[in-house]
Amino acid sequence: MIPFNLPLHVKKELDYIQLAIKNRKLSGDGEFTKHAQKWLEDNFKTRKALLTTSCTHALEMAAILLDIKEGDEVIMPSYTFVSTANAFVLRGAKIVFVDIRPDTMNIDETKIEEAITSKTRVIVPVHYAGIACEMDTIMALAKKYNLFVVEDAAQGVMSKYKGKSLGTIGHLGTYSFHETKNYTCGEGGALLINDERYLESAEVIREKGTNRSRFFRGQVDKYSWVDIGSSYLLSELNAAMLLAQLEESHEVNEYRLKLWEKYLQQLEPFGLECPHVPSNCQHNGHLFYVKTKDLTERTELVDHLKSFGFRAVFHYIPLHTSEAGKKYTTFSGKDVYTTRESERLLRLPLYYSLKEESVEQICNVIKDFYKGRCIS
Ligand SMILES: *Cc1c(COP(=O)(O)O)cnc(C)c1O
């Protein structure tokens, strides 16, 4: 059986974790956290990276930092993970969804302006599959209407838009190091602070609402409760694992892209709809998908692949159609593509330990499935 995903594992992880244990420093903000944060700052060019317990928590921190309140509106695509919305709903915001573009599955930047009202505070572009949203347009809208941009770059570690790393373009950006992502420490994330103004309050929110970080730098002589906050620090054991993975990320990225290209070379000329990468984006091979004619055909293809030992899986069920979505969200304009395209999308196995031959086999099984069928 070839699973859909296997978490990344690199050699140095165990050495680093052992070292963290020997250092007698297991809670957050030790040497490994500092190194991993510096690695992110140096490689991706952000003012400050803070490791968090998850991308979900980094998004929650962003909502607290931007002082999101009851009645505020936040614009995002409905085709995303629940946390993108939940983080803002937890602060009392109303989520306003905008349709996606069928070519990238990202928010349709041309439909955002119609969704902006006097209550709008934030736009949250989600870089699906590690392929960038049209950030120039989004940043220009934010400027015009005085809005914040929080990039959900959970899937975008190592990806770029016009030479800039995803997560570093908006005011704030978030990464995920969950085991389903390109680099992992089990559960983990990062908040990227690209706007100087949020530096100090971000440290406070992440440290249970205390000025503990300032205390450790010797800037205050005792630490105390200064604002609301929570426990968003990643443990040193996780940071140790993460640093080992980040140090090998260029190699990993190259191989993921190789597998991604192999899928594309086999399946696109065959006539299947595959992911589109706009020319100004450099992606990270986070995921490869094909689009089937419809939901029925997708279910049949899943079963066909499964009978040959390959796991393929669909992705998000649009949030506006969910139970909570009905309570906390509205859809601006028409859902032309969100539901339709989400029902056609099927993700294929792609991970560092996957062999090139397996990709070949998967493609052959897909081609076999379409024998005698017409491709939409
Ligand atoms: C994975 C993911 C998240 C959540 O990440 P966690 O680290 O599991 O909290 C949020 N948004 C998107 C788009 C994701 O893919």
TrEMBL record:
<feature type="active site" description="Proton acceptor">
    <location>
        <position position="181"/>
    </location>
</feature>
<dbReference type="GO" id="GO:0019180">
    <property type="term" value="F:dTDP-4-amino-4,6-dideoxygalactose transaminase activity"/>
</dbReference>
<dbReference type="InterPro" id="IPR015424">
    <property type="entry name" value="PyrdxlP-dep_Trfase"/>
</dbReference>
<dbReference type="GO" id="GO:0000271">
    <property type="term" value="P:polysaccharide biosynthetic process"/>
</dbReference>
<dbReference type="GO" id="GO:0030170">
    <property type="term" value="F:pyridoxal phosphate binding"/>
</dbReference>
<dbReference type="InterPro" id="IPR000653">
    <property type="entry name" value="DegT/StrS_aminotransferase"/>
</dbReference>
<keyword id="KW-0663">Pyridoxal phosphate</keyword>
<dbReference type="InterPro" id="IPR012749">
    <property type="entry name" value="WecE-like"/>
</dbReference>
<dbReference type="InterPro" id="IPR015421">
    <property type="entry name" value="PyrdxlP-dep_Trfase_major"/>
</dbReference>
<feature type="modified residue" description="N6-(pyridoxal phosphate)lysine">
    <location>
        <position position="181"/>
    </location>
</feature>
<dbReference type="Pfam" id="PF01041">
    <property type="entry name" value="DegT_DnrJ_EryC1"/>
</dbReference>
<comment type="similarity">
    <text>Belongs to the DegT/DnrJ/EryC1 family.</text>
</comment>
<protein>
    <submittedName>
        <fullName>dTDP-4-amino-4,6-dideoxygalactose transaminase</fullName>
    </submittedName>
</protein>
